[in-house]
């Protein structure tokens, strides 16, 4: 008997809000298939309705792509270009291919105010929805509906209990999260590809390929704000924890007040300027001169200043004024450039200062960046020209003078020095300098605080090859010798500035020269 199942329109009461069913308006025959689907109750079960939907309807997945930036920036523009491309190929006598692409562009400006060293997380979320994913006949006919026979019979029966042929169910899948820690521009591309083949007997074959691509281009701003703070190194003495600040006359001075710390900016090359455009300058003639943050002029020369991979601050001068060292006047905290480290002591200043970039806004002067100096010991290299002193270490001993004299000894008695992480300049662990008599170009070599007439000797290590060099105030350059045969002074170290080694050797037959030195890193 044929009849219209009008009462089945009531089934719409039980449809979910995500994909609503319409009542069947078809002509249906109450046969074994409909009886199997209808069951013994007035309405078919929800499980039966769900099976029909699963068989007949499109199921579309959508997901969220989240990108988190873990570094503070002053401003950033984030552009998300979201695309979803779906290709559906149906084979069954006739082959047709449909491709659809959806593109969405989202531009977001993220603003914050500190450094790449630390900061909150800025999150940008983009949504990709895949459309026209595989259609029906994606699953087998349930066992309880086997009486329906083939796909056409089961589909007709489902339609008669109120499940229409056309419908879509949207399913949200898990989000994908990526954490970005780089401070340079980058492109993040995420691909999601799904391919499935469905067959119904030997007559219906469907191949589905769903590809969605999320491209996020993050444009990191040119500048990042930092403060410059003195570390917990002994060379910084009473100024440990102080910040660089800029006075009303543009002079750079030290302050213990974090609220007065200067706002310095680092560009993508880690070049440092004050407020983004004012360089570090000093006068054009002095080997040591007051540091300013202002545009250079005819009477001033600019130094290029940077932070290294460990965020230590350093500068390189132009021309003969290398100005690689920093000192601070003990009475005023005024920061000065120095071309020669020994002059810092001669002028009564503190230094060479060790300075590090820290997040801005600044914390407080009691929150100290850890000491950055590298612990080293000095020894003669293993070169055969070093004779009996090859691989011997610098120690100290005393002779008739009141000063501790540098001598070669065993590793067990070696002195540990602290070397500046950027310039390599080193002193002992209580900032004792090296000195020599001013009398002649060939002198004994001491580790002591000077008393007239003594020269300060500035020594440094080149971390690239661990070679060691020293410079005297009055006699540029410096080479070392050691007494080899005199039993009283055996192993004592001296410094000379002659370039004619043969002449010095001829006049001093019991000396080994020139001594080649090297530094060895040790645990502090």
Layout: helices, strands, pairs:
Blueprint (H helix, E strand, L loop, with lengths): L1 E3 L22 E3 L2 H7 L7 H11 L1 E12 L6 E17 L1 E17 L11 E8 L21 H10 L7 E5 L3 E5 L5 E15 L3 E16 L4 E7 L12 E4 L5 E4 L8 E3 L5 E3 L5 E4 L4 E3 L1 E2 L6 E8 L5 E4 L8 E5 L5 E4 L3 H5 L2 E2 L4 E5 L14 E7 L12 E6 L5 E6 L7 E3 L6 E3 L5 E4 L4 E3 L1 E2 L6 E9 L4 E6 L6 E5 L9 E4 L4 H7 L3 E5 L1 E5 L3
Parallel strand pairs: 3-7, 3-8
Antiparallel strand pairs: 1-2, 3-6, 4-5, 4-10, 9-10, 11-14, 11-24, 12-13, 14-15, 16-18, 16-19, 17-22, 19-20, 21-22, 21-23, 25-28, 25-38, 26-27, 28-29, 30-32, 30-33, 31-36, 33-34, 35-36, 35-37
Keywords: Signal
Structural notes for this entry:
The chain is mostly beta strands. The protein folds into three domains: 2-219, no CATH class; 226-359, Trefoil (Acidic Fibroblast Growth Factor, subunit A); 374-521, Trefoil (Acidic Fibroblast Growth Factor, subunit A). It contains five helices and 38 strands. Strands 3, 6, 7 and 8 form a four-stranded mixed β-sheet that branches. Strand 19 (300-307) and strand 20 (313-316) form a beta hairpin. The longest helix has 11 residues, at 46-56.
């Amino acid at each position: 008997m044929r009849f219209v199942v009008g009462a089945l329109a009531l089934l719409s009461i039980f449809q979910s809000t995500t994909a609503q069913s319409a009542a069947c308006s078809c002509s249906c025959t109450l046969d074994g298939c409909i009886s199997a689907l209808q069951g013994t109750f007035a309405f078919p079960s929800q499980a039966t309705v769900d099976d029909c939907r699963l068989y007949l309807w499109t199921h579309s997945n959508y997901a969220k792509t989240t990108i988190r930036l873990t570094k503070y920036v002053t401003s950033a523009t984030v552009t998300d270009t979201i695309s979803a491309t779906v290709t559906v190929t149906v084979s069954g006598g006739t082959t047709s291919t449909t491709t659809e692409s959806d593109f969405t562009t989202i531009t977001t400006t993220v603003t914050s105010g500190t450094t790449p060293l630390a900061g909150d997380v800025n999150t940008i979320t983009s949504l990709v929805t895949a459309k026209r994913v595989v259609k029906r006949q994606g699953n087998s006919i349930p066992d309880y509906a086997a009486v329906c026979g083939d796909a056409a019979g089961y589909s007709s029966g489902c339609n008669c209990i109120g499940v229409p042929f056309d419908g879509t169910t949207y399913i949200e899948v898990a989000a994908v999260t990526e954490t970005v820690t780089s401070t340079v521009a980058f492109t993040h591309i995420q691909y999601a590809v799904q391919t499935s083949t469905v067959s119904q007997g030997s007559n219906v074959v469907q191949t589905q390929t769903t590809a969605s691509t999320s491209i996020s281009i993050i444009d990191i701003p040119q500048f990042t704000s930092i403060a410059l703070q003195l570390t917990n190194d002994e060379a910084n003495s009473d100024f440990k924890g102080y910040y660089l600040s800029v006075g009303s006359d543009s002079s750079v001075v030290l302050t213990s007040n974090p609220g007065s710390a200067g706002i310095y900016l680092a560009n993508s090359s880690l070049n440092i300027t004050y407020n983004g455009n004012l360089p570090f300058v000093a006068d054009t003639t002095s080997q040591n001169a007051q540091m300013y943050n202002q545009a250079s002029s005819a009477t001033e020369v600019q130094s290029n200043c940077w932070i290294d991979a460990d965020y230590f601050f350093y500068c390189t001068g132009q021309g003969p004024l290398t100005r690689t060292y920093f000192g601070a006047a003990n009475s005023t905290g005024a920061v000065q450039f120095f071309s020669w480290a020994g002059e810092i002591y001669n002028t009564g200043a503190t230094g060479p200062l060790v300075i590090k970039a820290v997040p801005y806004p600044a914390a407080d002067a009691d929150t100290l960046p850890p000491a950055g100096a590298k612990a080293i010991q000095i020894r003669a290299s293993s070169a055969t020209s070093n004779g009996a002193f090859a691989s011997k270490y610098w120690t100290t001993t005393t002779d008739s003078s009141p000063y501790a004299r540098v001598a070669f000894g065993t590793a067990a008695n070696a002195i540990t020095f602290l070397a500046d992480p950027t310039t390599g300049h080193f002193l002992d662990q209580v900032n004792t300098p090296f000195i020599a008599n001013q009398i002649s170009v060939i002198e004994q070599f001491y580790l002591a605080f000077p008393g007239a007439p003594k020269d300060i000797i500035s020594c440094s290590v080149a971390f690239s090859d661990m070679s060691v060099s020293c410079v005297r105030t009055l006699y540029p350059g410096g080479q070392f010798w050691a007494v080899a045969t005199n039993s009283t002074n055996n192993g004592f170290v001296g410094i000379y500035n002659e370039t004619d080694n043969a002449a010095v050797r001829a006049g001093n037959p019991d000396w080994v020269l020139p001594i080649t030195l090297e530094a060895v890193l040790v645990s502090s």
